[in-house]
Each structure stands twice: as structure tokens, then as C-alpha cells.
Specification:
Elements (H helix, E strand, L loop, with lengths): L8 E5 L5 H8 L3 E7 L2 H10 L4 E4 L7 H7 L7 E4 L22 H11 L3 E7 L9 H12 L3 E8 L10 E8 L24 H5 L12 E2 L8 H7 L5 E2 L8 H7 L18 H6 L50 H7 L13 H6 L4 H27 L4
Parallel strand pairs: 1-2, 1-4, 2-3, 4-5
Antiparallel strand pairs: 5-7, 6-7, 8-9
Helix pairs in contact: 1-12, 3-4
Length: 389
Amino acid sequence: MKKGNDSPICIDLFSGSGGLSEGLRMAGFKSVAAVDFDKNAIATYARNNPEALALNADITKLDPEILRSATGEKELDLLAGGPSCQGYSTHGKRIADDPRNFLFEHYLRMAKALRPKWILIENVQGLLTYNKGFFKDEILGRLRMMGYAAEARVLCAADYGVPQRRYRIFFLANRIGAPISFPLPTHGDGKGLRPFVTVGEAIGDLPLIVRRAGKSWPLPVQSLSEFQRYVRDGSNPLELHQGRPLSDQALSIAKHVKEGSGLRSVPVELLPPRFGKMRKIGNGSLRSDCTTLYHRLDRNKPSYTITCNFRNIASGPFLHPVDNRSITFREAARLMSFRDSYEFMGTSLPRQIGNAVPPLLAKAVGLEIAKSLGAKQNVKVKLKSLSPV
């Protein structure tokens, strides 16, 4: 791979708070520019990527020449990003004509203008099947029409050391004739794989905030797991570890939810009346949905998907394993595999964290692309060495 100032360069569209770029940085890429419409998210990006051009802009109106200027006249190695996906997310109400569904058009407009060697697009798994796979087929087809070899695959973050079972589809494409390969899992239950990183390994060293309130926390001198050593690297004291008291109703439910269980595990007679009715269908049987409402995380397993609603335990599996509270900003960031030293700026922190690409997942994908770029360089060197003197 290129070294130092010759590191492969990338641009991050729809960058959000920068999880994708953070993982690509760990894989050896240098981010030169990023674009996002959210002023808080791009402020976070700028804080953590001070050498990159961070644009708070509407991509539908952005001139690609502004991004080209950030490359310093170098050929762009990678264009990465995740166009907004709420219109076809399985976590919300699907809306066929949601304008956000077609933001990938502007991603492809930038790709056509910048002609990067590699293209990476990340999105929700629901895109794979929504409208019989229309968006997936459209994106692949358009990339191929532009002269790129392109493939798509669903990856699970937990397979790459992220303490979260988060499934996302990745599109990889290149125009340099390199083979397209997706990273092989490093973690799991199979032979030769490392165990999944669990919730306990991710946040077990953090103080139980019901014991104390404050803006910063001194951490124990000794970390307890390899993952904790990773996230604590370069950071002390701990920030953004504040909890929010539960409402009386939420507390009345949460105190009966055992670790690894949710709303349906609470005896009906202990629930407020409306929840008892919600749990049953017409024949009196318990409903098969609502399985993660008021769910308490299990310290011995990876978490469920961290969404923008992780501060609301009524919306999903965000109840702390031990405390009767939702997980904190820092706990959620750790479950996304952000280091504690990563600084989140402004407001809307749940959206900044929940919408991010887990850095360790991005790193795994980035290493595959970087390996290909390095292989191409090695071939050139080898051919040069065989040239006549």
C-alpha cells in the first residue's frame, strides 16, 4: 500500500459523523474531503479529520469540481459514502416516493465526474429486497454502465469485531480491472474465528451512572478486555457518559425485565393495561412482534442494531444490562466501535451515532480495497524491474 503522503486518498459523501472515514483511515486511507447536509454531523467530522475539507452542503446542488480541488490534482483512489436511506429502511415506515430514496443519483453524479478507481456505497439491508430489489439492481446497473465492475453483499458488523449485530449492504466497484472481494469474517462461532465481541466486553468497564452524575469520568486504570484497550486508546477521562432517568411508566416495566429479555417477558399483570392488550392478538395468543421493545441488553452477546432512538427504551433493545436506564451516548458509541477519543460535536448525538458506519466494519472493507490498490502497484513495480536497461 502507499505510505505517508502517498497514502491512497478518499472522499466521503453523506459522511455523517465520520464512522466510515474513521475505519478507512485505520485501513490506511487519507480522507481529503467529506460532504454532509447535517451541520452537527459535519462539525464532528471536521473535528476528527482536521486535514480534510468538510463541507456542510446540499449534495444535490454541489459542484463536483469543489471536491476535485481537494485531491490536489491526484487521481482519486476511493469515493465512499452512504446515501440517506430512510425511505427504504426496515426500521421505519417505508415510503416509495421518499426523495431520500434517490439521493444515490447524486452520489453517482459525483462518481461520474470524479472517476475514482474504487467506489464504496453502504446502505441498509432493506435496500436489498425493497421493491423486489429495484434499488440494488439500479445501482449495480448504473455502475456497470459507467465502466465499473460492481458487486454487492450484506455484511454483519459483529463478524468483524464490532459488538453489534448490525447488517448492512455494501456495494464495491472498480474501473482498474481488480478483483472485487469482500472481507472474510474474523469473528463468529465457526472454526478458526475469534469469539464475537460482547456487550460486556465493550462497556463492562464503564461506571454505573446511577451511582453518580457528571460530565466526565475517570476510568479504572486497568482495562478488562482487548476491545476495551482498543476503545480507550488515547482517551482519559471519559466523556458523554450521561444517563437519562426513566419515566415512571418505563421504570415500572424496566425493573421487571431480566437481562437478555424484553417486554414480552414481563408478566401481563405487572404491565400497564395498554401494554397487556398490545401483547395479544385476537385469539388471545401473545403477538410475535415487539420482541425487542424494552429489551435489556445481554452482557454475553453482541447488541442488537444501534439506531437513532437508543435513548428511548420503549423503541427497541436499548436497556442497560444492569442499570434501569437507556444506554449512554458513550456506551452506544462503543457498541458502534468508536474509540472514546472520538469527539462528537454539537447536538443530535443519537442521530450522529446511530446513523454511522461502525469504524471496525469500515476498516475491514477498506483493507480489502487497499490490498487491491497495493497489488496493482506491486504489479507495476515488478513489470518495471523486468524492463531492459
